[in-house]
Write a structure and sequence with these properties.
Elements (H helix, E strand, L loop, with lengths): L1 H45 L1 H24 L3 E3 L2 E3 L3 H37 L1 H14 L9 H35 L1 H4 L1 H22 L5 H42 L4 H11 L5 H15 L3 H27 L7 H40 L15
Antiparallel strand pairs: 1-2
Helix pairs in contact: 2-3, 2-7, 4-5, 5-10, 8-9, 8-11, 8-12, 9-10, 10-11
């Protein structure tokens, strides 16, 4: 009888033990998953310099890809179509780019060097401009604001002007020194871009072979195609925006009568590639330099750059980027702030393309899991 009782009780004991082990296993899986995510984030943070280098090489490859594809088109020779080898086409594009760069440097470098020399001689006057600008900005104290509000405004204004003054008086030399220090790394960008341009189809095929045949591989092919199109649109739109802003700012600064208009215009074009922070730095630096000679000129620069930003952000840039990357301005601002908090300037630089890539991946995941109705009209097939 006792034996029979043990036999009856065994299934219940086994069920309790099995349920307990299932819960323990689920908890272990969650812990391991969290540890894996934490380890991945730590590795990505530790390798952020290498990741930034690879991303810059990818961006450089996207910039040159249209020229390479143009050079690889068939051309007739004695009635027969010939195609230039891809490696040779990339080499030709590199030579053309190098020649263009040397020509631009020959034309612009004398004037840029002269303005930089003059700026270095007059840099001490920028320190006087800090106090003038701070006195002008803190004129709100006459409005009898609460003491806590005045202190907060004073600290913010002082910090902004000090940062701008530091960028103006010391930033140029520091940037040049840092660029010289990173020169060996920067030389790797065109080398890595060469392999990306040459073997991009092979890399794509290797990535797709890791997926099962059928729906998974088809979805992976569509995902890579859409990510490629999105990044291409973003990088080329940024390049056009940099060239446009640099040209417009140089002309505008010259018409306003600002000194070092060419240097400031080039800085405006380069900083345009850094969302939000870049244009703000340009306003601070240009206004601070102009305030040395005339507060009206500084105010004119602020108004001019404000109009440029409105026209660029709401009229020109949407037309340049088209429908290739649909991100709400709220998402862009939040992404840039998160990138700045996580990784500083590299995070700001990488924020928008990262969010755009994640957005494309999320839409494809919804479509893959059978939610095509929710993303109809968002995921468009391209020719």
């Amino acid at each position: 009888m006792a034996s029979h009782t043990r036999e009856v009780g065994n299934p219940a004991t086994t069920d309790v033990a099995g349920a307990s082990w299932s819960q323990t296993r689920a908890l272990l899986r969650v812990i391991l998953l969290l540890l894996a995510v934490a380890a991945t984030m730590w590795i990505l943070y530790a390798l952020r310099g290498v990741i930034l280098l690879v991303v810059l090489a990818i961006f450089f490859a996207y910039l040159l890809a249209p020229l390479v594809e143009l050079a690889c088109r068939p051309f007739p020779v004695r009635g027969r179509a010939h195609v230039m080898p891809r490696a040779l086409a990339i080499g030709v594009v590199y030579l053309l780019l190098l020649g263009t760069f040397l020509l631009a440097a020959t034309l612009l470098l004398p004037r840029v060097g002269t303005q930089i020399t003059q700026f270095t001689r007059e840099a001490p006057s920028i320190d006087r401009a800090r106090s003038q600008a701070l006195a002008w900005i803190t004129s709100y104290e006459a409005y009898q604001l609460p003491a806590a509000v005045r202190d907060a405004l004073n600290k913010s204004a002082t910090r902004a002007i000090d940062i701008a003054g530091t960028y103006v008086t010391e930033g140029l030399g520091n940037v040049l020194v840092q660029l010289l220090g990173f020169l060996p790394w920067l030389m790797l960008i065109p080398i890595l871009a060469f392999f990306l341009l040459k073997d991009s189809a092979s890399f794509r095929a290797i990535a797709l072979q890791t997926l099962p045949q059928g729906r998974w591989r088809w979805r992976g092919r569509e995902l890579l195609r859409d990510i490629n199109a999105t990044l291409a649109v973003y990088v080329r739109a940024q390049l056009i925006a940099c060239l446009l802003i640099g040209t417009v700012c140089t002309i505008g600064f010259s018409l306003i009568g600002v000194r070092y208009a060419l240097v400031l215009g080039i800085c405006a074009g380069l900083l345009e590639f850094i969302p939000l922070i870049g244009p703000l730095v340009v306003v601070l630096i240009a206004a601070l330099i102009a305030s040395v000679y005339s507060m009206k000129q500084a105010l004119g620069i602020v108004v001019f750059l404000g109009i440029v930003r409105i026209v660029q952000d709401y009229v020109v840039y949407p037309r340049i980027i088209g429908h290739g990357m649909s991100l709400h301005p709220f998402a862009v601002i939040v992404a840039v702030l998160c990138g700045a908090a996580l990784a500083g300037v590299p995070g700001i630089f990488l924020a928008i393309p990262t969010v755009a890539t994640l957005s494309v991946g999320y839409r494809h995941w919804l479509a893959h899991t059978g939610s095509e109705g929710l993303v109809a009209g968002l995921l468009k097939r391209r020719d």
